[in-house]
Design brief:
single chain, 473 residues, Fumarase C, Chain A, domain 2, two-stranded antiparallel ribbon, 4 strands, 4% strand
Length: 473
């Protein structure tokens, strides 16, 4: 309790995402990369023995952290400290660990591998949310509700159709994730300025073996290739690409959480509220949308934090500068952790959304008379009325009804006024028929069904992935 702990760690992010950015994951990946490098160099003819490779493998996941930490205090270099610590354990391989490589061989390849794994976890959660939202959209595809423009009551839509707007933005995010994952590459073994000079020296000027080394490293780690050129590091624009995707997800989530906060204020749709949950320390009756509010706050953090990657990429000097390291350690990990937290909240909310049809219907009935004046007018004309005269009558009634609602707090009496006005020759039953909400939703139901078919077709590609994820949580 006496030291700072990030809320992303203690309150928000999942254990799975926290592990991906943990020291243990990083240092174990470093050792894996050293094993892969030694294997590839041996296969290409360097004087590395099978016994040395086996020695490296034996201690690949048994890291002597205390030795590495002590050595780092002495040499002030984390990679060389871990090279030393690995050699203390794998004594037979001590002389060939990190052979020909620079620090970025382990640090940058590790970062690329972790970001890819983290984005795959984000993808699973995003697909899970879309899967639940599409069920919600279908369930409420026919339920008329007030549309809003400028947060003013507008033409009707349906609860399900509105949900498709949330889904559509997440589908755009999913598309970006797939594109990024499809072009995932490693840095490979590029050396201190990206020229592979040290490896060319090791292989006595054999360019083909140097190129093959990159290819073997990628294949052994399950990647289709490495970036063709680099400085000492991979281009920091890659970090920017990843964080832009996370920013996009944050934008989509912020939009959803804001909509839900407004809907909860209207008492039309609510996020889950647990039996013993306290909404306010002072006002016991309150049901605050705390999950949605937390989503909004975290999304704002991701949107602003993502700019770090762009600024860092723009600031790089020639083949290498180290001002990226400290910023990158914070910006990349925390963007992933915060996005993970956002999606955990999103998933929790959509798994238990509560809809109040009677409240929605009440709000529709309050506003629909104003929106239906053209329909009322046409029906009255069909009964023999004069359009111009009736138009003026309905304008006067509308103004009076609006004044009573706004100035006197009364219920909307427009329909009552029209029934009482003999010029319209319309009964209450006829008006009720004219004002049936489903007549004012256009193609909302059909659009929802048509779009969800597209969504389901896309989700079918993730059936096995979803099943695996559900079993693991």
């Amino acid at each position: 309790m006496q030291r700072y702990h990030s809320p992303l760690q203690s309150r928000y992010a999942s254990n799975e995402m926290q592990y991906l950015f943990s020291p243990e994951k990083k240092f174990k990946t470093w050792r894996l990369l050293w094993v892969i490098l030694a294997e590839a160099e041996k296969e290409l003819g360097l004087n590395i023995t099978t016994e040395q490779i086996e020695d490296l493998k034996q201690y690949c996941e048994e890291i002597n952290y205390e030795v590495a930490e002590a050595k780092e205090k002495e040499v002030r270099h984390d990679v060389m400290a871990h090279v030393f610590a690995y050699g203390v354990q794998a004594t037979k391989a001590k002389g060939i660990i990190h052979l020909g490589a620079t620090s970025c061989y382990v640090t940058d390849n590790t970062d690329l591998m972790i970001m890819k794994e983290a984005l795959e976890l984000i993808q699973i959660k995003l697909v899970s949310i879309i899967d639940k939202l599409k069920d919600f959209a279908l369930l409420y595809k026919d339920l008329p509700t007030l549309g809003f423009t400028h947060f003013q009551a507008a033409q009707l839509t349906t609860v399900g159709k509105r949900a498709t707007l949330w889904i559509h933005e997440l589908m755009l995010d999913l598309q970006q994730i797939e594109q990024q994952l499809s072009q995932s590459y490693l840095l490979g073994s590029k050396g201190t300025t990206g020229t592979q000079a040290s490896f060319l020296e090791l292989f006595t000027g054999n360019h083909n073996k140097v190129k093959e080394l990159d290819k073997k490293i990628a294949e052994k780690l399950g990647y289709k290739g490495v970036y063709p050129v680099s400085g000492q590091t991979y281009s920091r624009k890659i970090d920017d690409q990843y964080l832009n995707i996370l920013k996009g997800i944050a934008v989509s989530s912020h939009k959803f959480s804001n909509d839900l906060r407004l809907l909860q204020s209207l008492k039309e749709v609510e996020e889950p509220f647990e039996k013993n949950q306290i909404g306010s320390s002072a006002m016991a009756y309150k049901r605050n949308p705390m999950r949605s509010e937390r989503m909004t706050g975290l999304a704002r953090f991701v949107i602003t934090n993502s700019q770090n990657a762009a600024l860092t990429a723009a600031q790089q000097w020639f083949e290498r500068t180290l001002d990226d390291s400290s910023n990158k350690r914070l910006a990349v990990s925390e963007c992933f952790l915060a996005t993970d937290a956002i999606l955990n909240l999103y998933l929790n909310i959509v798994d238990g959304l509560v809809v109040y049809p009677k409240v929605i219907e009440k709000h529709v009935k309050e506003e629909l008379p104003f929106m239906a004046t053209e329909n009322i007018l046409m029906n009255a004309v069909l009964k023999g009325g004069d359009r111009q005269e009736l138009h003026e009558r309905i304008r006067q009634h509308s103004m009076q009804a609006a004044t009573e609602v706004k100035m006197e707090g009364k219920e909307n009496r427009l329909l009552e006024m029209i029934v009482e006005d003999e010029n319209f020759k319309l009964s209450q039953d006829e008006l009720d028929q004219i004002l049936e909400g489903k007549q004012f939703i256009g193609r909302a139901s059909e659009q929802t069904e048509e779009y969800i078919k597209e969504v389901e077709e896309k989700l079918s590609e993730f059936t096995n992935l979803l099943a695996t994820y559900e079993l693991s949580v």
